[in-house]
Design a protein that fits this description.
With 386 residues, the protein is an all-alpha fold. It has one domain. The protein is 67% helix and 0% strand. It has helices at residues 19-37, 56-72, 81-106, 122-133, 157-172, 179-199, 213-236, 245-258, 268-292, 298-317, 319-332, 336-385. Helix 7 (213-236) packs parallel to helix 9 and helix 11 (319-332) packs antiparallel against helix 12 (336-385). The longest helix is centred in the C-terminal third of the chain and has 50 residues, at 336-385.
């Protein structure tokens, strides 16, 4: 391999990707963006449009468990725990950093009645940027936006915090469990998540973004069930024949995300049951079918690859613009129709920015980190063998 050029395969998983799953991840990321856009007009989760967009995070966790199991379960004879964690760090953390930086750059343009950014000093903002970039949670009452988020500069970073917990659990515990024991872990975690969703305080699982008791419990259950379920799927997976898996899966994700709240404020349990069915039954089936399907035409292949490529960058860079959009809507007292051009610009602009971040930042940084964190070790090891 040339010293001056490192191929994409050097920092990507060496096994072939499931292209349909990559594409479905991109569709789910788009539903998250739309879900967040409509937060500007919601008074609570009850009247939120694109009401169940938060379930995309659970879909991400299932995908993560499946892909990690597929990519790494059979490598542990030659791979150390330290190397695995480095690989996950290289894959995940560059976008965590750029998301925090974008959030910091835009922070002082996001002022509104919901949060007064003018009272935040530059040193406090720098500290907040540093801890967000390091994925250190901000405690309630201390975080600079004042709304209780773990990561006030870029809210979606909370799910990466739990993703890292999943990485550690896999490296030290879950990968070592026999499949039968892993099944019971999934079953118990699923029962806990269902109980939280159906009988919990909110009637949904839109939690995990704060360090309050309910958010910690709910976020932990979301991760433990979905990540473990994905890992279990990777162990028992045997492809089945399915046609149109990408388009069927995409349509299903969009419909499930967009459905209105079920049961209203009087019957919270009904919506909790809906969330449970989506996460515990529908999403695992979608992952199974997506992994079984094949792209057979150029349109599906290209669409899936593009959506898959930008899915993670899109998820990690769009939210600072959501803060800005929210402030604009509230300060100007705009209806959705009045702000529609801004909403469309936000969605399109986030997609463009995600692609630029992927090509100009994420991929080059991952190549650099791979060269200095992984390839150097491999070179030294091969030298010792000689």
């Amino acid at each position: 391999m040339s010293k001056n050029r490192i191929s994409a395969a050097a920092f990507a998983d060496t096994k072939p990707h499931y292209n349909i799953l990559d594409g479905l991840r991109g569709v789910a990321a788009l539903t998250v963006v739309c879900f967040h856009v409509f937060e500007a007009y919601a008074t609570s989760h009850i009247d939120q449009k694109i009401n169940h967009g938060y379930l995309a995070v659970d879909f991400f966790f299932i995908l993560s468990g499946f892909v990690v199991g597929y990519a790494y379960d059979d490598r542990w004879q030659t791979m150390t725990t330290n190397e695995f964690i480095k690989r996950r760090f290289i894959r995940l953390h560059p976008m965590v950093v750029i998301g925090a930086i974008i959030g910091a750059i835009m922070f002082y343009y996001q002022g509104c009645a919901a949060w007064d950014v003018s009272t935040v000093s530059a040193p406090r903002l720098l500290v907040a940027t540093f801890i967000n970039a390091c994925l250190i949670p901000a405690t309630p009452g201390v975080e600079i936006r004042g709304v209780g988020e773990m990561y006030p500069l870029n809210g979606p970073s909370w799910s990466l915090f739990y993703e890292y917990i999943g990485t550690i659990l896999y490296a030290f515990l879950l990968r070592k469990l026999p499949t039968s024991v892993l099944f019971f872990v999934v079953l118990l975690a699923g029962c806990g998540l269902a109980a939280f969703a159906i009988w919990g305080p909110y009637g949904d699982i839109c939690v995990g973004f704060s360090l309050t008791e309910e958010n910690i419990i709910g976020g932990s259950l979301r991760l433990l069930f979905s990540f473990s379920a994905g890992l279990l799927l990777s162990r028992v997976f045997k492809p089945v024949k399915v046609k149109g898996a990408f388009w069927l899966g995409s349509l299903t994700i969009v419909i499930l995300s967009a459905l209105p709240r079920i049961g209203g404020s009087e019957n919270l349990w009904m919506n909790g049951l809906y969330d449970t069915i989506c996460v515990a039954i529908v999403f695992p089936v979608l992952v199974y079918l997506g992994a079984s399907g094949q792209t057979t035409d150029k349109l599906t292949t290209r669409t899936g690859k593009l959506l898959g490529a930008i899915s993670y960058p899109l998820y990690m860079v769009h939210y600072p613009f959501i803060y800005l959009y929210y402030a604009w809507v509230k300060n100007e007292n705009l209806t959705f129709q009045q702000s529609l051009p801004g909403a469309l610009s936000l969605v399109v602009g986030s997609i463009v920015l995600a692609y630029l971040c992927l090509k100009l930042y994420d991929e080059p940084v991952r190549r650099f980190l791979t060269k200095h964190l992984l390839l150097v070790r491999q070179y030294v090891s091969s030298g010792r063998q000689r």
